[in-house]
Amino acid sequence: MKISLLAGVLAALPCALAVWPIPQTFVEGSSNTQVYWVSISTQGDVGPIVANAVERYRTIINRESFLAPADYRRGELPTSGTFGGLTVSVDSTDETLGLDTDESYTIDVPVDGAATLRAKTPYGAVRGLETFSQLVTANGAGKAIAKTPIHIADAPAYPHRGLLFDTSRNFYSVAAILRTLDAMAYNKMNVFHWHIVDAQSWPVESRAFPELQTRGAYGPTMTYSYGDVQRVIEYARARGIRVIPEFDVPGHTYIVGESHPELMSCLNKQPGWDQYAAEPPSGQLNIAKPESVAFANKLIDEYTKLFTDEAFHIGGDEVNRKCWAEDPDVVKHMAENPGEDVEFLLTRWYSQVHDHLDQTGKTPYTWEETVFHSQYVPSSKTIVQAWLSHDSVVNAVGKGYRVVSSSYEAYYLDCGHGAWLSNWDGNSWCDPFKTWMHIYNYDIAANITDAAQRKRVLGAEVAAWSEQTDETVIDPRLWPRAAAMAETAWSGKADAAGHVRTTAEVASRLHEQRFRMVARGINAEPMQPLWCARNPGSCNLPQQQ
Amino acid sequence: MKISLLAGVLAALPCALAVWPIPQTFVEGSSNTQVYWVSISTQGDVGPIVANAVERYRTIINRESFLAPADYRRGELPTSGTFGGLTVSVDSTDETLGLDTDESYTIDVPVDGAATLRAKTPYGAVRGLETFSQLVTANGAGKAIAKTPIHIADAPAYPHRGLLFDTSRNFYSVAAILRTLDAMAYNKMNVFHWHIVDAQSWPVESRAFPELQTRGAYGPTMTYSYGDVQRVIEYARARGIRVIPEFDVPGHTYIVGESHPELMSCLNKQPGWDQYAAEPPSGQLNIAKPESVAFANKLIDEYTKLFTDEAFHIGGDEVNRKCWAEDPDVVKHMAENPGEDVEFLLTRWYSQVHDHLDQTGKTPYTWEETVFHSQYVPSSKTIVQAWLSHDSVVNAVGKGYRVVSSSYEAYYLDCGHGAWLSNWDGNSWCDPFKTWMHIYNYDIAANITDAAQRKRVLGAEVAAWSEQTDETVIDPRLWPRAAAMAETAWSGKADAAGHVRTTAEVASRLHEQRFRMVARGINAEPMQPLWCARNPGSCNLPQQQ
């Protein structure tokens, strides 16, 4: 009982600033401020993004009556001042959102009177509003801000803090996507990498090739119209989240064959698909056919317009040589053109498609295989997405490319769920399950010491591949694990004193964030028994302390 | 395209009987029967259980318009007869539900006219109604029963097909429990093993010791009143599901110490809990104190009345010797009574508590440690729950005990989710994740050849330990994997011809069951991309075929 009572006493103290992700710098006081009603106003011209965000957070904060699990026995905080509203101002109303967007902000909450949130851009203000919403806690019948006066100065460690969302293996409603964008905003994530099509289905409308959707969507209700896409983009932008679409070519394209078999190689080889693709159904655009270049480039023309972000992901992962080597058109081409083998054709294909994408003015993203496993050399403005190992990050920055890490070793949220091929009682290739602790401990910039190279590490992305995931399970598959990545990408691995944060230190704060997300309608999964969340430090392994 | 079209053609054929779990014997015809409206009537006296089940299934079937994913391209079935209603009759209206309850039934659906469901007991009729509900499929604007005439004769392979549900590590609302009971009924599972209390919280009301709940529940809204328990029991019984409560003693009882520290040993040792318990917080009933026997027996008196099933689970897993060896009372007792060491005290404690439980007339369940890791010898009517390995099943039946297998190697649904101690970036002790294929391939009676011993294997239980699970995630954690176990426990491992069913053979039918469960409001997780569900056999590993 003694220890239990002690835990109760500790829990009764107002906790230190518990914002997730933790701000770069903050100073907290020892008073508490009573909050009767959260009024938020703007100073000067702030633009529609900020105006909307103010509305949104006013609703969230006034509706919310959140108490962290570790504070469950906390009595009412004694307050010595009254909150006098929050005033938001921005230096610029430029609502351009991209890799260079400044997301910094400062917050000052006095013990008594008006608080201020200042940002350079509208998106900095959006981040600051999320931080401010996490400062307000339930207190008796009302609310309070603990540990005032508070000063926060914050900015992200990395400019790309993403989530890859796969809507092809299984379909997700627009509502599920919007809910996911909300959850991303709660964690200051800023890139929704929409892996919108893959081999299994083509949910998105195409006006250039309507048959892709009519033949390739899982059904008439399992589609994204132009209007749906625009809605997702606008909803994301309002939260400072970029939507980077991926149209993965030339592999992972079986579904194109449902309407355009003439463009394809090795279409749905059965049985024996495993010799032609990483997963069923097999099928790749036919690199011997100029029509497949024209097809890809017409898609690029269409979708670089529909998707307004400065970046565009052209895929390029897991292409299979055997698929082409056995293709009759490729075989014929090689016979007629000595020396022009699969590698030659693939390199030419890449150059024709990547050149076209470059000409649209977009920043291309491509999977690491394009750089490391082909002879093609993408333009220097290309951003490489590494996934096969941390070495890929090191190698990409070494080659002068900018890189985003979604290393499967840490960031593949689908892993550890066992294999999914019907006749195999085995594990998945990327076991084990990536725990939040494992994700949190991962360092995307490990072993990169050169400052210029380090700067080319743009950030991290968790990936929610959807072979075993759909709308029924997406929330707990993503959260709170994606939040663990989000903190390391926003706050960095170390605090201002250079101390690398440990999972034991941050667990209580992540519990708080998880319960906050649940209170906001996101079905984030529990990290531990509630007893552990309420008794910080009591569920650690002693030998590791 | 050729192969894809072929798959379409195959999918257009009405599928073979797709009931999950598959009936022991069934004969199907080659006609299809039109269903305009599902009327279900009863013949003779059937009793309230059947009358309620008829109401329930009439609603389910008429509301449902379910088409299996593999049938998505199927045209309207040509029908050559019209369904004339289902008539349900039972040989006996005895509503006693227990291990010996006969769950057999027969169903006959002619091409034209009235169908019949006959059962020996009301619970056989409940099982048959579930089967019948799965025969009805969407057909154009209406419904149909495919492959008539149909004759089914069915009965379970094992009498105990259970789910362990842990409401202590994290809390579940009554609504979540009722939804889970619905899902169990959809899979003909018949035992809800309610692991209702454990170290972390004591949600259930006690009238003998009200302080257990008031001090031990996670909060006033996270409780089960007597009325809640009775509601769960009645809801389960209506679905032919027994509720076997577990009050785990003497280990896993920290929470008793919140109100009765005087009964406890090694209460919440911090740090260093790992020397005293399998997980935090540590704490065991003090075996040196007669008061702890009196306490346990008073709980038995109370809860054997509240929980009306013929069986009662008394726990007994993972007791820690060091916890007692260092306890001052135990040390004192040993000093004063030479020879009466921890093993002696534990054996005496077990005998005083088990004898008391035996005297209530209940059938005791206990975890295998009581039999294998203590010197106590439970009465022969005790049912052993094995979990540490398949050898435990073999050994238990060898000792003459009846046994239920919840081997962690196959049936621990929480496993493979990584460790949950805040400061450890590692896996869980019971990795990897148990896939439905792994669960399906497991044989609880493997290597038991003696007929009498084999008969003592009563069945199987999947376990949903809740350290990393609560209401946000329970549906996908349980389903469809629990359904995989359910089929092996109801239908057995082999068909009538002795052929052991393979996961490749049953995958399509389990997909159908998964989507049916989703249609019925259970958030079962997807097994594969929808493309695989729609194209049976296309997502197998070729080498394994």
The structure class of chain A reads alpha/beta
Give the count of helical stretches of chain A.
19
Q: What value does the Rg of chain A take, in angstroms?
A: 25 Å
Task: Report the oligomer.
Answer: homodimer
Work out the number of β strands of chain A. Answer: 17
Give the terminus-to-terminus CA distance of chain A: 23 Å
Shape of chain A, please? elongated
Percent strand of chain A equals: 15-25%
Name the largest protein-protein interface in this structure. A-B, 81 and 80 residues
Helical amount among residues of chain A, as a percent range?
A: 25-40%
Mean pLDDT of chain A: 95
Poorly predicted segments of chain A: 1-15
Largest sheet: spatial strand order of chain A: 10-9-8-17-16-15-14-13
Largest sheet of chain A: 8 strands, parallel
InterPro entries (chains A, B): Beta_hexosaminidase_sua/sub (IPR025705), GH (IPR017853), Glyco_hydro_20_cat (IPR015883), Hex-like_dom2 (IPR029018), HEX_eukaryotic_N (IPR029019)
Family (chains A, B): Belongs to the glycosyl hydrolase 20 family.
GO biological process, one term (chains A, B): glycosaminoglycan metabolic process
Catalytic activity (chains A, B): Hydrolysis of terminal non-reducing N-acetyl-D-hexosamine residues in N-acetyl-beta-D-hexosaminides
What does this structure look like?
- The structure is a homodimer of 545-residue chains.
- Chain A is α/β, with parallel strands linked by helices.
- Chain A has helices at residues 2-12, 47-63, 122-135, 174-186, 210-216, 226-238, 290-306, 321-325, 328-336, 342-359, 369-372, 390-398, 408-411, 436-441, 451-455, 474-478, 481-490, 503-519, 530-534, and strands at 25-35, 40-42, 81-90, 105-109, 113-119, 136-139, 142-154, 160-166, 191-195, 242-246, 264-265, 284-285, 311-313, 363-367, 383-386, 402-405, 457-464.
- In chain A, the strands form 3 sheets. An 8-stranded parallel β-sheet of chain A has the order 10-9-8-17-16-15-14-13. Chain A has a 5-stranded mixed beta barrel with strand order 1-3-5-4-7.
- In chain A, helix 4 (174-186) links the parallel strand 8 (160-166) and strand 9.
- In chain A, helix 7 runs parallel beside helix 10.
- Chains A and B meet through helix 14, helix 18 and helix 19 of A and helix 14, helix 18 and helix 19 of B.
- Chains A, B: InterPro entries: Beta_hexosaminidase_sua/sub, GH, Glyco_hydro_20_cat, Hex-like_dom2, HEX_eukaryotic_N.
- Chains A, B: GO terms for molecular function: beta-N-acetylhexosaminidase activity; isomerase activity.
- Chains A, B: Residues 158-492 form the Glycoside hydrolase family 20 catalytic domain.
